Amino acid sequence: MPVILLTDALIFLLIAVAIGFGVYAARHEHLRGPWRSVGRSPVGIAALVVIAFYVAIGLLDSLHFHPRLDAPTPAEPVQQEAAPENGAPDPGPRYSTQVLSVLDLWLTPLRERDEKTFSAPFATHLFVKEAIEQPDGSTVRDYPRLTHGGAHLKNPANRTADIVLRTLLGLVKGLMAWTLILAALTWWLARRRGETFNDCARAIWSGRTQVPWRVGLITLALMTVLGFVAAELAVKYHILGTDKVGEDVFYQSLKSIRTGLVIGTLTTLVMLPAAIILGIMAGYFRGLTDDIIQYLYTTLSSIPGVLLIAAAILMLQVYMTNNAESFESLVERADLRLLFLCLILGITSWTGLCRLLRGESLKLRESDYVQAASALGVRHSTVIARHILPNVLHIVMITVVLDFSGLVLAEAVLSYVNIGVDPTMNSWGNMINSARLELAREPIVWWSLAAAFVFMFTLVLAANLFADVVRDAFDPRLRSLR
Amino acid sequence: MSAYIIRRLLYALPILIGVNLITFVLFFVVNSPDDMARMQLGDKRVTQEAIDTWKAEHGYDLPLLLNEEARGLDKLTETIFFQKSLKLFAFDFGSSDSGRDIGYDISQRMWPSLAIALPVLLVGLSINISYALMIIFFRATYIDWGSVVLLVAMMSISGLFYIIGGQFLIGKLFHLVPISGYDTGFDATKFLILPVLVGVVGGIGSGTRLYRTFFLEEVNRDYVRTARAKGMRERVVLFRHVLKNAMIPILTGVVAVLPLLFMGALITESFFGVPGLGSYTIDAINRQDFSIVRAMVFLGSVLYILGLIMTDVSYTLVDPRVRLS
């Protein structure tokens, strides 16, 4: 039974908006041109491929449903947010109250194979000593074998060989998948360009195509191979270890992708209408409207962002503790909090865009074509829709892309201060927050931090590089500096 | 000049009133003091008496906007709005929910914050400017390209990792300086080295990149071309012309953040256990001490607006082309 969480609905709305905008941009040369130059930049393509991987995982994670409870399968809610606090709601006749996503379903082996507590990446033994009962009845304090990680090995000493073998297998599978994509792409390109398959392949390989397919394909190869190797190994090992409660860190990192993407994109989506409408109105109508809107955004931007977020989240917490019964499940609650966080982040971040748009509309207002339109008696709303809005869209786009990475980073910091996403939600900030305390251990538990670092760094780096390319393409002033 | 400053200060007043109203609505209207009391007392089955005592203890037992029972001017003053919100204008922050005087705490904790933020600003500024200048000197070479890649990569690392990494590498691995803590007077220096270092390194990415664009903008100007055409050496052009003119946006940007230095760095301070305003705020957030958060919101806005005014004034001082209007 499908469940649509609030953020899911907004994500679908966002996709619809993005598609609509894509169609619009494709029809208008002043937007299509810059995008084309983004497509011709090797850095842009490479970043786009990486981002596409993240988005794909995030989307898979956004399709939620209640799993069906078939009679024989023990639908044990493995430390999922199956609401122990709600006093164990009895499972419905056919559907579990647990909310899963398609990604969860796909990663079931990762999700359900929990250990007792910490274990290092690729470990076969637990990280802490425990009293183990020997066959002869005596107990020894030693590192026990993991219940799942490397459990298929009879002798843990063979681990290295097993890992190498599996890596090679993953490598081969990944390369095969990549070759398929490569062939399909070449075939498609060849048909479009009216060349033979071989000519086209040679053109791609020597980098003679306009769109730098070669760079894109190399990035794609890297990502696919990494993905397949990880998948191959993750089935038998905890490739990034397990955390304090024994949950697989790799699974957590993958689940965190959605949170990061939601924060990075929905925040902008939420703030866009207000920023665009108010910004253009202030610049276009001037006078009293301008004064009021300027006052509004100056006031909001003068409150330090973190403090405003803190205040708002504290208030939300008060509301949630007092209205705890109105949330069906913890997932729903966490989701509402995430959405609320997006809203608040949006409120703190729309002011910059609003100011930019106001300045630009002030300029556009004086241009000849707007003057002519007003003189001909065209209504204000039409002038704005036809002349002002299309001419500020590039600013909107640059801001959206530039803001993304900052928001993903902000999530981590906010979660560290406990004013970020719900503590039960998977997010990189929460991972860092809980792993931070374990640094004092000897030997130290580094894998949660490392995992969060790698996943976050890759996404933010790709986003930053992509944003640079987009900005260069849209901002003619900067382009001339090169 | 003074007339201009006074006018700007007067403009700031409505903004502060707005901030005040927003915090008031956020803290008292969205959730009633009853809700807050219930949250603080932390139990679902709190009796109404317990709530009332808590409210009376913390001065939340007054009506929100208008006190019908009082007479005369007290009708307006004996209210939460006046007692808790309007008094902020006189920098009377009242006492925190745990009973301490917020104003005193702030005046004590300001200095450790400043002791970290100021060195971070100064050292960071000099390093960023020199690095950006170096990149400009070698522009359109592999040094330029590699540096930009490095800067973007540094920008993409969350500030948390700089702190954790710094603490681990320098404090734990090499045992050079203590990981966290604070001391009075000169003894504090050894505790300050690490936070300052982390702050500077964490800021290099975005700072240098920003300054590089400032310099790039100046490098292509006509007067620079003229200077080169006269046969000046690149070094002289860079230091005498480009640096001087690019300093205008850099310095005014710095002036804007000067007042906010008092607020401290939230995360850094709480990580390193520095008793500054940043960790004060974080502690308040974690303890859900609304009075402190409210006071800090107001203080932060005041400092931000002060920074804006100082920026505008400094523009007129540094750049003769800008006139007061």
- Assign the CATH topology of the domain at 249-464 in chain A: MetI-like fold
- The CATH superfamily of the domain at 249-464 in chain A bears the name MetI-like
Walk across the major sheet of chain A and give the strand order.
1-2-3
Strand content of chain A: under 5%
In short:
Chain A has helices spanning 6-27, 29-39, 42-60, 102-106, 108-112, 159-193, 197-205, 213-234, 249-285, 287-302, 305-322, 330-365, 368-375, 380-416, 428-436, 447-474, 476-481, and strands at 2-3, 64-65, 100-101, 130-133, 139-142.
Write a structural description.
The complex is a heterodimer of chains A (482) and B (325). Chain A has helices spanning 6-27, 29-39, 42-60, 102-106, 108-112, 159-193, 197-205, 213-234, 249-285, 287-302, 305-322, 330-365, 368-375, 380-416, 428-436, 447-474, 476-481, and strands spanning 2-3, 64-65, 100-101, 130-133, 139-142. Chain A is built from 17 helices and five strands. In chain A, the strands form two sheets. Chain A has a three-stranded antiparallel beta sheet. A two-stranded antiparallel sheet of chain A has the order 4-5. In chain A, strand 4 (130-133) and strand 5 form a beta hairpin. Among the domains of chain A are: 153-234, no CATH class; 249-464, MetI-like (MetI-like fold), CATH 1.10.3720.10. Helices cover 67% and strands 3% of the residues of chain A. Chain A is globular and about 100 Å long. Chain B has 325 residues and is an all-alpha fold. In chain B, 72% of the residues lie in helices and 0% in strands. The interface between A and B is large, with 48 and 52 residues.
Please specify the SSE layout and strand pairing.
The complex is a heterodimer of chains A (482) and B (325).
Chain A (H helix, E strand, L loop, with lengths): L1 E2 L2 H22 L1 H11 L2 H19 L3 E2 L34 E2 H5 L1 H5 L17 E4 L5 E4 L16 H35 L3 H9 L7 H22 L14 H37 L1 H16 L2 H18 L7 H36 L2 H8 L4 H37 L11 H9 L10 H28 L1 H6 L1
Chain B lengths: L1 H28 L3 H9 L6 H11 L15 H4 L2 H6 L16 H36 L4 H14 L3 H15 L15 H31 L2 H8 L4 H24 L8 H7 L4 H11 L2 H29 L7
Helix pairs in contact in B: 1-14, 2-3, 6-9, 6-11, 7-9, 8-9, 9-11, 10-11, 11-14, 12-13, 13-14
